[in-house]
Amino acid sequence: MSDTSHVLIKFHYHAWEKNNPDLLTIDQHEEVIKKYGKCWFGRMSPISRERAEALRGQIETGVDTYAFLYCIKVPKDVQEDRVLWYRAPLLGISIGDPKDRQLIPESYRDKQLGCAFLLGGIEPIEYPAGETPKVPGQAAVRYVILTGPPTPENLYLTSDPNQRIASLSKFEPTEGPTPLKSKEAHEDQTDLQNRVIDLQEEVINLQNEIADLKSYKDFYDRIISTDYLFSSESFLETWLADNIHKILPEFEIIDRQPKLNWPDGKFGRLDLLAKNKETDDIGIIEVKTRKRSQKSGYDQYVRYTTWARQNLDPLKEKYKASNIKPTENLDFIIITDFVTDEMKAICKDHGIRLVHIIGGLSFERVI
């Protein structure tokens, strides 16, 4: 039996606009394929990330991978034995909204998708009247393997290679006691068999959902842990020295922890000394986290800017390689992981730039 996995997707005859009798699911996607050679077949609910990666791996290594499409919710006024099965080469998978949205049919292009399957040419799989294989169960997306040519009757569940995914609606006896011969018993046993299959599918889907939730939890935990990276002023300062352009693109760092001296012998150190690339003026950057006093940033603003204005010529000489032209119109920037209304008011009143670190992942220029 082949180890190659494929995917089976159930879809509604009228998918996104059920009240529009002229808008058919397959027709919408075929129009996109006719224009672009491929299309996204989208779904609102997500799929297993692990399964998606496995299918992607197959596709990337050149393994022929298929999406089998099975039509349900066919209106009563439509011919009963219309084509219910379609097959298309599976070219890619997107978890969440795909970027190239022009490949999504217009009827649901503005929807937020949980996943999407990139399909090549969609071809119908036709059967004689009354012989179209049916797929029991409620699962909308199933992962299957093939035991022969790529047709529905050769599809088996990857989770149970002995369980056929599609078959005619007729009773197929299994090992065990001889089934009852009456029509009622036959129907009851068939119904019971289908209910067991449904329950098995539900269990498999729940197991996949649990695996997905664990994966998302692990990912979330990794995101939350980054909040602690910038709780260290030293780490944040080091990061800013190399990445200031990502937050304040108009600045470049010209020195870290430069020493300043007062005539009475007192001294201090700036966190970062920067150059405004637009004006060639200097900017003083102070890094503050909630582990340190936030108010010290205001005190440093007064002390550091006063010192800088009294030492414009020495600064110009010391950093002449950076071509700075320091003036009294210098910038003072506080970058912090904790912002209050008081801080915003004081910074705005004194012309201090304020940058807020959000969750260790992004930066917001508040002032």
Give a written overview of the molecule.
The protein contains seven helices and 16 strands. The protein has two domains: 5-168, Roll (Archaeosine Trna-guanine Transglycosylase, Chain: A, domain 4), CATH 2.30.130; 232-365, Trna Endonuclease, Chain: A, domain 1 (3-Layer(aba) Sandwich). The protein has helices at 25-36, 49-60, 183-225, 233-243, 296-310, 312-318, 341-350, and strands spanning 5-12, 39-43, 66-72, 85-95, 115-119, 123-125, 141-146, 155-157, 251-256, 259-261, 267-269, 272-276, 282-288, 331-336, 353-358, 362-365. By secondary structure, the protein is of the alpha+beta class. 23% of the residues are buried. Strands 1, 2, 3, 4, 5, 6, 7 and 8 form an eight-stranded mixed sheet that branches. Strands 9-12-13-14-15-16 form a six-stranded mixed sheet. The longest helix is centred in the middle third of the chain and has 43 residues, at 183-225.
Can you summarize this structure?
The protein is an alpha+beta fold and 367 residues long.
SSE string, helices as H and strands as E: EHEHEEEEEEHHEEEEEHHEHEE
Report the count of strand segments. 16
The average pLDDT value, as a whole number, equals 81
Kindly estimate the percentage of residues that lie in beta strands according to DSSP.
15-25%
Number of contiguous helices: 7
Low-confidence stretches: 170-181
Q: Describe the biggest sheet?
A: 8 strands, mixed
Amount of helix: 25-40%
Shape: elongated
Q: In the CATH hierarchy, what is the architecture of the largest domain at level 2? A: Roll
Structural class: alpha+beta
Radius of gyration: 32 Å
CATH-assigned fold name of the largest domain: Archaeosine Trna-guanine Transglycosylase, Chain: A, domain 4
Distance between the termini: 64 Å
Q: What is the total number of structural domains?
A: 2
